[in-house]
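Here is the promised in-class demo. Please do not try to memorize the tokens; focus on the logic of going from shape to residues.
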């Protein structure tokens, strides 16, 4: 009798729960190389702070190079990146930098005095905000300190 009861319970359990397959999962979206690169860069910036500062300084160095090229041809520091936009559009890496300038990650200071701040990054690193001067000196500032320097520079 217990054997019959066990078999009946087993059959009843199988019919109630069923033998259905799990619904098919949607295929994972293929990650593009650019998305993978951006995710890797974000992870490294978070866990390796020196890389974050290095990437910011590399970008600021490229901005300085383009603005300095315009400065040598006209004798005046340009007000923004329009002087180098055409040249930057030709190079894919420079297009990414130009996009960062347009979205506000990097700010160009128009007509800086000699030795003044030429450009700075608005995203704070572990050492603060990083700026580049007209003499290609990199400086680290606290946010309020940078704003004071920029206010003095505008006078």
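The designed amino acids, position by position:
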């Amino acid at each position: 009798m217990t054997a019959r009861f066990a078999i009946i319970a087993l059959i009843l359990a199988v019919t109630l729960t069923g033998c259905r397959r799990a619904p098919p999962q949607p295929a994972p979206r293929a990650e593009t190389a650019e998305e993978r690169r951006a995710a890797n860069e974000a992870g490294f910036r978070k866990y390796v702070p020196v890389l974050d500062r290095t990437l910011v300084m590399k970008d600021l160095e490229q901005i300085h190079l383009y603005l300095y090229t315009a400065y040598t041809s006209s004798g005046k520091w340009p007000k923004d990146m329009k002087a180098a936009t055409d040249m930057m559009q030709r190079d894919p890496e420079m297009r990414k930098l130009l996009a960062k300038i347009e979205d506000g990650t990097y700010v160009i200071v128009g007509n800086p005095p000699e030795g003044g701040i030429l450009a700075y990054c608005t995203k704070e690193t572990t050492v603060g905000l990083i700026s580049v001067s007209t003499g290609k000196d990199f400086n680290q500032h606290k946010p309020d300190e940078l704003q004071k320097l920029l206010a003095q520079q505008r006078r």
